[in-house]
Amino acid sequence: METEIWKAHPEYAGIEVSTLGRVRTLDRTVPRKNRMYHFKGRVLKPASNGSGYLTVAVKVNDKFISKIVHRLVAQAFIRNPDNLPEINHRDCNKTNNRVENLEWVTHEENIAYRDKLGHTARNNAPTLPVFAINLTTLEVSHFSAQSEAGRELGILQQSIYKVLKGIIKQTGGYWFTNDDEKADDAINRKLHEIGKTGLKIR
């Protein structure tokens, strides 16, 4: 059975994090109206933040705030002498918050690592081919992955992801759609919107 080591978080009092990526509260006694109330510590149940990362609710200054689990673990167990801003999951699994799977990195290193392993920067899924429309020339280009499109066009991969999800309408003068069974219709609809209809894409 794997040994689990618990350590107090250096910033948030009353919680501990473990080498297996878990977070727990400590036993505590709280005085209220001339009585002492005893609360048993417990392992907190994580929830997804919508981007695939796990979060827990931590009480800070009598208010509960959501904190990302992998950051809590890294802050407690992994030295960061260069004050690096982000944490990389070595296996690109956003829910694997074991200490040995985490490392402090720069933003650029974080993106490059996931690109190298064939994962998208935002949704941690295998890369899929995409089409891009140049909104000035109306040229349609094909790329084997979001990462390739980002490198070739000089556009942040996160921004391409946002266009694909409909969060933003365009980035860097380009519109994007996934290369799937709906791609032809999606591209022709977009070209129709900008005054070009009926082009054969493939």
What structural class do you assign from the helix and strand content?
A: alpha+beta
Largest sheet: 3 strands, antiparallel
Helix content: 10-25%
How many beta strands in the DSSP annotation? 13
**Which strand order does the major sheet show?**
1-2-3
Outline: elongated
Q: For the CA atoms, what is the radius of gyration?
A: 23 Å
- Low-pLDDT windows of residues: 118-126, 197-202
Number of helices: 5
Cα end-to-end separation: 55 Å
Which percent range describes the beta-strand content?
25-35%
Order of helices and strands: EEEEEEEEHEEHEEHHEH
Would you tell me the overall average pLDDT? 85
Question: Can you offer a commentary on this structure?
Answer:
The chain is α+β, with helices and mostly antiparallel strands and 202 residues long. Among the domains are: 6-82, no CATH class; 130-193, Orthogonal Bundle (Arc Repressor Mutant, subunit A). Helices cover 23% and strands 28% of the residues. It contains five helices and 13 strands. The strands form five sheets. It has a three-stranded antiparallel beta sheet, with helices on one face. Strands 6-7-8 form a three-stranded antiparallel beta sheet. Strands 12-11-13 form a three-stranded antiparallel beta sheet. A hairpin with a 5-residue loop joins strand 6 and strand 7 (54-60). Mean pLDDT is 85; it is low at 118-126 and 197-202.
